Amino acid sequence: MAASQLQNPLKTPSSQLSIKKHKPCFLKPRRLTVSAAHPHLNGRKLRVAVIGGGPAGSSAAEALASGGIETFLFERSPSTAKPCGGAIPLCMIDEFSIPHHLIDRHVTKMKIISPSNLTVDFGSKSLRAHESIPMLRREVLDAFLRNRAESAGAQLIPSLVTHLEIPSSSLSPYIIHHTVNNSRKTLAVDVIVGADGANSKVAKFIKAGNYTCAIAFQERIRLPDEKMEYYQNLAEMYVGNDVSPDFYAWVFPKCDHVAVGTGTVCRKHDIKMYQQGIKQRVKNKIKGGKVIKVEAHPIPEHPRPVRVRGRVALVGDAAGYVTKCSGEGIYFAAKSGRMCGEGIVRASEGGEWMISEDDLKREYLMEWDKKYVSTFRFLDLLQRVFYGSNEAREALVEVCGSEYVQRMTFDSYLYKKLAKGDRWEDLKMVFATCGSLMRCKIVGRDMAAFNL
Question: What does the alpha-carbon distance between residue 71 and residue 340 come to, in Å, rounded to a whole number?
Fold first, then answer.
């Protein structure tokens, strides 16, 4: 296709070579790499397409547009949103300037219920007076973040991306094929940010590799007023083989309804059976409720093998940034999008210069891994320890009865950093955890023998 036929064709100035010393991602020892220098983009700004308009894409687009980049935000269905529990950490409100009126509930109580229905109140004593877990609806948050990206200067393109043409040189443009109102169009850009979810087309086009996905399923249920009053500021988490073989089920309060759902990795074909399991567990609490929406969606279980290739970077679910154990993704999606956008702004000096794969790895990927890889690994370990059997889940709930465990959990979750605890209390927690695992394993065997 000739350049004259493309929408907004790019000029591609000549390049020159320079030698740069960079750290590759994952913080390996330094190595010497040769890359194309940053040619100046005379007469225009760097052009970046962000594909996907959820928290990751919108946050990336806002950062890019605010930093002087010519930004295009593609979103296939602006009126819809990903199925999601909707919990966000407290720090996200200030960090991302989320207006308080978007928050449906400020949860101050949580209950964790074991397979044997042992219930632990999580937060009633350990949350500080000013702390809560904000709950919101994704359709509300996503629309707000997209509108803010537009206000910053990003151009929203409501369309389906159908194909990407990968450039043959380091300075040639990426060509995005997309449809708007059944009309086929193309757009030429310098850089692409893939924020199009777990089934990312961008990831497939750049051969970023596969990853294991869980399936999340939830029903939004409008409850009678007296039932809804119970969930006024309360969220519940249920664990057990009846609700999920490797995750948890939840009841989270929304503005005028509750979200009741579950997830699994290893037995996705049985997801509806597990959904019935959680509904059976809470049947008396949701009696008389009316299902107003049914939702299902894949959730990545670990980062993709490749998250940057060429001048394409993946963020959010497309990159695999959902934590094990908690299944949290909203904050990490928005954070990765913002970090990627700001990294592109830095590397291009406000859109004045072309950037390279090495720039994306240095300014975005390495910074992300340095900040969050330990958190993801720790939560992966917790999931493998506590979600493998009903006995381990009983131990998990028992351990969660400790106020120290609760405080450490909230400090880590609400403020998004691994909390630094007291060494003596940490040692006691380790011994208590080992004791709970041993005791619950014995109890589990006794229960199994009794059932026979």
Answer: 13
Count Cβ atoms below 10 Å from residue 412 Cβ, excluding itself: 19
Q: To which residue do tokens 């928005």 refer?
A: 334
In angstroms, the CA 330 to CA 322 distance is 8
> b or e along 117-128 (b: 16 or more beta carbons within 10 Å of the residue's beta carbon)?
eeebebbeebbe
How many of the other CB atoms lie within 10 Å of CB of 439? 14
3-state secondary structure 198-232: CCCHHHHHCCCCCCCEEEEEEEEEECCHHHHHHCC
Domains for the chain: give ranges and CATH numbers: 41-98+137-212+301-384 (3.50.50.60)
Q: What phi and psi, each to the nearest 5 degrees, are found at residue 390?
A: -65, -35
The sign of the torsion formed by the CA atoms of 217, 297, 314, 73 equals: negative
Given a contact cutoff of 8 angstroms between Cβ atoms, the answer to whether 331 and 93 are in contact is: no
CA 63 to chain centre: 18
CA distance between the termini of the chain: 71
Angle, in degrees to the nearest 10, between helices 366-386 and 390-399 = 110
* Cα(70)–Cα(64) distance, integer angstroms: 8
Q: Is 449 exposed, middle or buried (0-12, 13-18, 19+ CB in 10 A)?
A: exposed
| pLDDT tens digits, one per residue of 204-222 | 999 999 888 889 999 999 9
Which H, E and C letters describe 422-451, residue by residue? CHHHHHHHHHHHHHHHHHHHHHHHHHHHHH
The number of beta carbons lying within 10 Å of the beta carbon of residue 367 is 17
Please tell me the distance from the alpha carbon of residue 264 to that of residue 244, in angstroms, as a whole number: 6
**Whether 372 contacts 378, CB under 8 Å:** no
Separation between Cα atoms, residue 213 and residue 222, nearest integer Å: 29
Q: How many whole angstroms separate alpha carbon 277 and alpha carbon 341?
A: 42
Q: Which candidate, 394, 403, 396, 366, places its Cα nearest to that of 381?
A: 396
Check if the beta carbon of residue 221 is closer than 8 Å to that of residue 286. Answer: yes
pLDDT tens for each residue of 378-388: 888 888 878 88
Is 391 within 8 Å of 438 (Cβ atoms)? no
Distances (CA, A) of 409 to 88, 325, 413, 418: 14, 12, 6, 9
Per residue in 343-385, pLDDT (tens digit) is 999 999 999 999 999 999 999 999 999 999 988 888 888 888 7
Which residue reads 């023998």 in tokens?
449
